[in-house]
Structure formats: C-alpha cells, structure tokens
Amino acid sequence: MWKWSSLLPALAAVSVGSAQTAPAAVDLANLSEDIRGLSQRVGDLSVRVDQLEAENSALRDKTKSADRDYVTLSQLNNAIADLNRAVQAAVAAGQDETLKQVSLQIQKLARLSSAAMEPAAGNPSARGAAAGAGTASFSADFPKEGINFTVEKGDTLALIAKKTGAKISDIVNANKLADPSKIRVGQTLFIPGGK
Question: Which end of the chain is more exposed for a tag (fewer CB within 10 A), N or C?
C-alpha cells in the first residue's frame, strides 16, 4: 500500500531547493500537516477494513452454523410429523375400540329393553310368552357382533334372516324370543352377524 509519509521527505527537499520564503514554508508546513493527517486517516481506515473483514468472516461462520441448525430443525419437524401421525393412529384405534364397546352395550341394552317392554305392552299373549321365557332356555352360541334391525310391517324372522344374512336361531337366541312368531312392528332386534 502506498504511504503518504514517504512523500514528506520529497516535498521537504523540493521546498528547500525552491524559494525559502516564509509563505512557502508555511504552505509547506500546512501541506506536511495535511499529508500527516491523511496518512493517519488511511491507517485508521486500514485498521477498520481489517476489523470489518474479521466481522464478515465471523458472520460467514455463523451463517454456515445456521444452515446446519436449519437442517436440524427440518429433521425435528419431520420427527414431530411422524409422532403426530402415530398419535392420530393410536387415537383412531382407541376410538374404534371404544365405539365397538359402546355398540355392544347399546345392543345389550336394546335387547333388555325389548324384553322388558313386551310384557308391559298389555298384550296377554306377550305376557304369557314372557312368563314362559323364564322357563325357556336360550343358547349363548351366536355371533356377538351384528346390527340392530327395526321390524317393519310384513316382516317375519325368516324374512329378516334372509334380508340380513343371519340365522333364525341366532336371532331367536340373541333376542331371547320365546315365541319367534310374535314379533311386532317397531320392535328392535339384534341381528348377530347381520349385514
């Protein structure tokens, strides 16, 4: 780098060789002082440039580090997404199991309600059937999963079994029907294995 301080001796020599008048000496002294100030300023700027280069290098290092952190954040986001999917699958499986349990309980309640409502309906033959139901025996050997079916006008157990793909004996046992010919419109039956 070119230094202003190397120009000072040359200027001094030129001014000594030329007229040695007071105004020229003052001008030379002023010029020398300006050159010295400029040299100092250039030195300060050189130091500042070195500092800026050091800061720039530090910022580059931080940027590289931030890029590595970004990859880590991306991996973290992927891991969180995987975990969320696993949690949602577990919740869905739990909900399915809970719904199955609730469905079975509702079907059981419907069967019990249906059996309890028949004698209360005031139908003498139904009361007799309910009284006979205490002595009738029903098999528990039927599918425990199925559907609820509401009896419509004209339905018989045979027709219901045909519609749903179930066995008549399974319907009788599941609903504890003492007299299978005595189903009524609006009655809800549990159809084991029904579709």
Answer: N
Exposure of 177 by Cβ count < 10 A (0-12 exposed, 13-18 middle, 19+ buried)?
A: buried
Same domain, 68 and 125: no
CATH classification at residue 134: 3.10.350.10
**Total structural domains in the chain?**
2
Domain assignment of residue 136, yes or no: yes
**Digit-coded pLDDT (tens) for 34-74:** 999 999 999 999 999 999 999 999 998 887 776 665 657 88
Report if residue 51 sits inside a domain: yes
Asked if 2 and 42 touch (Cβ cutoff 8 Å), the reply is: no
CA 151-156-161 angle, 5° bins: 90
Report the candidate in 166, 118, 126 with the shortest Cα–Cα distance to residue 144: 166
0.70 exceeded by pTM: no
H-type helices in 1-141, by residue range?
A: 7-17, 22-120, 124-133
- Residue 188 pairs in a beta bridge with 150
Domain extent at residue 53: 4-72
pLDDT at residue 11 in the model: 52
